[in-house]
C-alpha cells in the first residue's frame, strides 16, 4: 500500500480522477477551425460528429476565407480587429512570389510574411478572448471536447481556459513542433528534415545536412512561434510557450499515413487518418461526365492548384494551353483567369471542380497538382500518377516524397514550357511504372481495418467519454531536456566511476610505495 | 528522374518490388508456436485465421506440453532430440524454487536454468532443421506468411530460410529485445526497466537505478540469447545475431495496451492486441453456475495460478483453506494437489476451470492470480480487482503495474498466512476504490474501435496480401549505433567548429601581432 501512496503523491494515479464512467451519447463539441484548406478536411469530421448526434459549435471569425455556416452545425461568429480586406491582403502576401523568379532576399521576406500572418491571427484570437459576453456563454455551455488545428493557437488557448480536453486535427506543424510537443522521438539519422531533400536512406553528407537543417530550423522557429508564445504567456501562464500549451492535446489526429509519410516512431495518442478527405465519392455532373467520357482510350488530365491558387500569369498559362493542344488527352482545369480566345477543344476550364470525383473516374490518367496534402491523398486514393508543381508551404516536401516513391514527376511553375509539359505527360503515360507503383501505393493505403473518418470520430468520442486520454500521455512531459536524455544520471555514474578508479589507483600506488619503502629499509638495515 | 535513380540505387524503392496487387483470399499460414501459456492465446488467432478460409499448418514438436491437434488446422509433428520426460524435467526446473525460500545464489541458478531451457529449445529447432524431408515439403508448400512467437527462435529461422514474411505474436521479450530489434526508442528516463520497481514518474535515484538496471540487463541478455545467436549464425548467416534475425519481422502483434503497459513510443508495425484472450465468453457448466450463484450478495473468488502451476505445498495450501473458512465469499480454486479432508463448504476445487467465464460472472468479486498477462487481461476485461501472487518470469513486473494502478494487492506466496489473506480480501471488498479504479480501467480497455482479434487477423492478412509490410519498416535498421545517434555527424560538426574557431583565433592573433609589430617599429623609427 505504501507504494500506491507514494505513486499517488507522484501523480501517477492522477489520471483516474479525470475519467468518467458514463458514456457521452450526445456530446458537446466546440470547434476552433483554421481557415483555408485546413478547414476543408476538418469540416468532414465536424459534419460526421453532428450526424452522429453530437452538438457541434464552430467558432467563425467575421472575416474569413472558406469557413461558412451549415445546417449540420451551429456557428458562433466573433468580431475581429481586422477587416476582410486586411485578411485577403495578408493571404495575398503569402501567395506572392509564387509566380515571380526567386531572389536571394526572398527567404527573409518569406519569414517576415509568415510572422505578419501569425501576428494577424494572434490579433484575431485576442479579439475573441476580449469578447467577454461570448466567452462567458461558451464557458457556460460545458463542452466535452475542443476540436482544433494547432496550426493556429486560439483553439488550444480556449481548451486551456475552459479546462476541456483538446483533440487536434492536423497535417503537422512547421519545425515538427507537433512531434516535439508530443514528446515523439525523431532521430535525425533516418528521419529527413523538411526541405532537406533527403530520404530516410541518408549517406554521411546527407546526415550532416539533416543535422545542420535541424539547427537552423530551431532558430527560425523561435522567430516563427514568437507571437504564439506571447499569446500563451499573456493569457494563460507567465512564461508558458506554445509548445508547452499544445503538449496538453489529448489526441492528435494526423492527416497522413505511411504511404505518404516516411516510416517513423509514433506516440500512443497519435492517430493516423491520412486520406480522410477522399473517402466519399459522388457522381460527376452530367456535362462533365460526358466531357471526360468523350476522352476515349486516351483518358483525361485533372489540373488544379488547390483552394488558394486558381490563376496564373498569362505567359505561364499559355505554355499549358500550347501543351494541351498537342496531346490526345482531354483536360479539366480549375482556372479562374481570363481564358484566351483559342482555348483548345480538349480543355474544359472550370471555376471549381469536383477534384476527388474526377480522379475517381476510370478514365483519369494524370493529376496536375501543386502537391497540397489533400490533393496528394486524392491522387493516392484513386491511384492517379501526378505531375506536381510545388508552390509554397509544405508542398515542396510533399512533392519530394511522391517523386521519391516513383509515382510523380516534378516541374517548376516558373520554368515550365509547353515542351516539358508534353514530354512529362508522355513519360507518365508511356512508362507504365508510374501507374504500377501508384496502384500499389493506393492498395496499401486503402487496405485498412477502419476508415479514417470512423477512426477520427471514435477518438473524438473517446476523449469526450473519458474526459481526455490520460492513459496515453507519456511521463516524458514532466522532464527537462537533460533529464529526458538521462544526462544527469550518466554524469553522476561517470563521477562515481572516476572516483572509484582514482581511489583504487591511489590505493595501489600507496601499497606499492609502502612495499618498496619496506624493502629499501630492509635492504638498508641488512 | 535523376533523384529517382539515386534513390533506387539506395534501396528506397526496393519495397515496391515485393508488393503484390492480388488479394490473398485463402492464404497459406505456417505457424511455429511456443509451448505453454504462449500457445493458449496464439491458438485463438490460429483458429480464427482458419475460420476465415486460410489454410493453416501448425508445427508441433513430438514432445510438447499444451500444443495439440485440432479440426481447425493441420499439424505437422516433427521429431526432436529430447524426450517428453526431458522436456517435463526442463519445465519443472523452471518451476523449481517457486515455493522455496530464496537464497543468495538463486539468481545465478535462475540464469543457468534459463540457459538450459534455451539450449533444449535450440536442440529441438535443430532437429527440425535437419529433418530434410519435412523441410523440403514445407518449402514446397509456398506459405504466404509465418506466424510465430519470437520468444523462441525457430519460427524466425524458418521465415528467413523460406523467404516468407513473419508476423510476430508476443507479450514481449526478455531485456526488451523486441523493442531493440524493432528500433523502437525506449528512453530510460521515463520507461521503467523490468523488475526495477519503478513507474514512469521517477525521481533522480530511481532514474539512476533504471540506467544501472539497463547496464546489467545488457550483460545478462548476452548470456541468455547466446544459444539463439549461435543458431542464427550457424544456420543462416555467419555472425548474424538473434536481434538481427528478428528485426525482419513484418508486423509485431503485441499482447498489451496502455491499460496494462506504461505509455511509451511505438513503431508503425507494432499492433496492440492486449485482451485478445478474453474476447469470447461462454456460459458456465450448470453445476458451477449453481455453485457461484449460491454465493448470494457476498459473491465469489476465482483462484488460479496459471497453466503451469496448479499445486502448492500443503503448508501453504493450509493457509488458504484456513483463510477461506473465515470469509462469507465462495471460492472456485484450480487445485490439483491432494485436498485436505476438511475442505470448507464454500470452496470448490477443480482440476481446470473456465477462468474468463467465471470472471465475467456478475458475482465475481476478487481474482486470486499469479499475474500472468492472460490472467491480468481477463481481470481487466471483466473489471475484477486482484490479489496477486507473482511466481516467476514477468509476473513480478506485471503485478507491480496493477498494484501501481490501484486495482490489485500483492502477496508473497512464501510468506502468506491465513490472516494476511483474510485481511487482503476484506480490504478489497470494503475499500471501494479498488473496484472503482478497475471499472474505469476496464472501460478504457474495452472502448476500442476494433476488437483485438479482428486487428490481429487484419494485419496477418495484410502481410499475406502485400508480401510483408515494408512501407512500415524504418530506415534505422540500416544504421549502426554511432550513426543512429548521429555521433559521427556531431563529431564532424564539432571538428569543423573547432577548426573554424582555432583559425579565427590564429588570424586575430596574427593580425594583432602584426599591428603591434608595426606600431613598435614605427615608434622605434620615430
The end-to-end span of chain A amounts to 71 Å
Strand order of the largest sheet of chain A: 3-2-1-4-5-6-7
Judged by helices, strands and strand pairing, the structural class of chain A is alpha/beta
**What overall geometry of chain A do the principal axes of the alpha carbons give?**
globular
| Protein chain pair with the most extensive contact, residues per chain | A-B, 74 and 74 residues
Low-confidence residue ranges of chain A: 1-23
Total of domains of chain A:
2
Q: Give me the CATH fold name of the largest domain in chain A.
A: Rossmann fold
What is the CATH architecture term of the largest domain in chain A? 3-Layer(aba) Sandwich
> How much β-strand is present in the residues of chain A?
5-15%
Membrane topology (chains A, B): Single-pass membrane protein
Subcellular location (chains A, B): Membrane
Protein name (chains A, B): UDP-glucuronosyltransferase-like
Main location (chains A, B): membrane
Annotate the secondary structure layout:
The structure is a homodimer of 526-residue chains.
Chain A: H1 2-10, H2 14-17, E1 28-32, H3 37-51, E2 55-61, E3 74-78, H4 84-95, H5 106-130, H6 132-141, E4 145-148, H7 154-162, E5 166-170, H8 177-181, H9 204-224, H10 226-235, H11 242-246, E6 251-254, E7 270-272, H12 286-293, E8 300-303, H13 314-325, E9 330-334, E10 347-350, H14 355-359, E11 364-369, H15 373-381, E12 386-388, H16 395-404, E13 408-410, H17 418-430, H18 433-446, H19 452-466, H20 481-484, H21 487-525
Parallel strand pairs in A: 1-2, 1-4, 2-3, 4-5, 5-6, 6-7, 8-9, 8-11, 9-10, 11-12, 12-13
Helix pairs in contact in A: 4-5, 5-10, 13-17
